[in-house]
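Hi everyone,

Forwarding the result from last night's run.
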Amino acid sequence: MRLRNAPLARIAFVVSAFVSLSACEQNSFVAPPPPKVEVAPPVQRAVTRYLDATGNTAPIQTVDLVARVQGFLQAINYQDGSLVKAGTTLFTIEPETYKLKLEQAQAAEVGAQATLKQAELDFKRQTDLVQRQAVSQATLDTSTSTRDNAQASLQQAQVNTRIAAVNYGYTNVAAPFDGIVSNHLVSIGELVGVTSPTQLATIVQLDPIYVNFNVNEQDVQRVRDEARRRGLTVNELRQLPVEVGLQTETGFPHKGKLDYISPTLNQSTGTLAVRGVFANPDRTLLPGFYVRVRVPFEKQDKALLVPDVAIGSDQAGRYVLVVNSENVVEQRKVTTGPLDQGLRVIESGLKPDDRIVTAGLLRAIPGQKVDPQVQKADAAPTAAK
């Protein structure tokens, strides 16, 4: 009997041990801890709002230098592409002929002055004789007419002298302002100004320089609303600073100011033409460059900013993940603004004391608890962990 009951006893022991072990394993199971995520409050600081645009540079003044009198080109007095000062003689056109014509006109003027002087003396004598009834009134009338004709002849001679002086001045083609002169288009000894003004070269002023750009209708309304809020006049609005950067430059190193705002919008493009003026002493900006333009028009004292990597998007728009007071993740819809020093401005949807998930975004699931690790928002991570 003992031998037959031994296997049964062993089986009962094994079953009892298995049940006991299973019970122990079930009682020792512990749920995993909430995942750790990095959170930070939004940065709160003053932010300047800008209008961003793309523009192109243009010279303030550009003039075609032309020959206004006929003659052979006698001299070219500059190097092609050189910077010249206003009044510098650039071309000389056969001045001798026009100098002689000026001297001829001056001599005719001197003769007209002498004739008028003689006519005035005769008029005075005839006037005295008429008063003494020594000559007839007809003689006085003839003397008066001679004097008036002499006066008219002198005026004509004076005009001829001025015309001759102007034409003589045209033989020297001078720079009308400081600028860069292009290559000459004619050669020494060539006949110019035969039937019409002959272009000799072009001069361009590079300092200062214009930047032309367009502002869309929505931005125009924003600027107008801000100007109305701040009580700015049109003249004060035209003094707003403008910043420009070339395509190969970092940031906006060139500083200028608004110079012109078109009174009407372009109906075909829905934009407003705007122009800025910039000092350009080293001629870094050349006409025709495409440039990046921004115009500061508003300053917000307490803007909220978050790292760009903390912002997600779905079909409903942009959002951030927020950890509430119970350490539960919430998805918060936000309206975003421009970047400012590496952080994104949040227009609406956040409060200053919100805790934004900035790293561990894949572990932060809306509706579930997390273990938040507080960081600084301005130490923005480069990617979600």
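The two ends are 70 Å apart (CA to CA).

Cheers,
N.
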